[in-house]
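Exercise 4. Each item below gives a protein and its sequence. For each, produce the structure-token representation.

Item: Isopentenyl pyrophosphate isomerase (Natronolimnobius baerhuensis).
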Amino acid sequence: MELLERRRALIEERLVEVVDGVDPETLSEEVRHVALSGGKRVRPMVTVLACETVGGTAEDAVEFGVGIELVHNASLVIDDIIDRSELRRGTASAWAEFGYGPAIITSDGLLGEAFGLFSTNPQATRTVAEAMVELGIGEATELSAQPSNEDEYMVLARRKTGALFRAAAELGAIAADSDPFTVEALGEYAERVGIAFQIRDDVLDAVADADDLGKPTGHDAALERPSVVQVTDLTPEEANARARAEADRALDALDRIDVADPEAEGYLLELAEFVVERER
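Answer:
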């Protein structure tokens, strides 16, 4: 656990450095509010751990890890505007704190900083760009052509959440100079973890207490968002079982790679458990 905290501290330190370098000061303040207001840093940890699992180091992957966290945060700013969510991670969301215009500019600023970190590697840039296309399609689908059954929901979950998770793991493999087979296997692992994460997120929105969750609950139902418990016949218990099945398939994908660091792989195994058991 101490080594895991060292990796997280490495990510946090670099994230602070990037945010502190943002100009002008007004934008830096807004970016800081979004990027440093908490968060589990799951995606950058996936990047670092994936890299170490296949023979790289945390230092090799930290730039890409911070980059994918910034992309994730940029997407959350827009999500909160769409959902009219006033709370994010227990504090005011960007639009609630600064207004709609500054929030959109903050999202742009986060993306700009992120692609600055990817720019040294064309493969990394392409990987994240492809993930953002998938994310955009997912967001558009959610707003205009909502899924009406489980299969359609799963496609949406893959695009809305799985795509960035996939990119996070693939970035780690790229940082370790892995072969295409390894990049793909780690990507599939993370994509399925992301889908499990999204399913569990929907269940928590439906059944959790807002104070425990750190953000408002019941939004999916109120806004007629395509939650797994809204657009399928699954009960929360059955949805949790579906999340578990995705996590199991993630572990199957992880079994296909040649492991250089069993400790790092162990943390990836634990993550697949965490996303289906988390309470917030």
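Check: The chain has one domain: 2-268.
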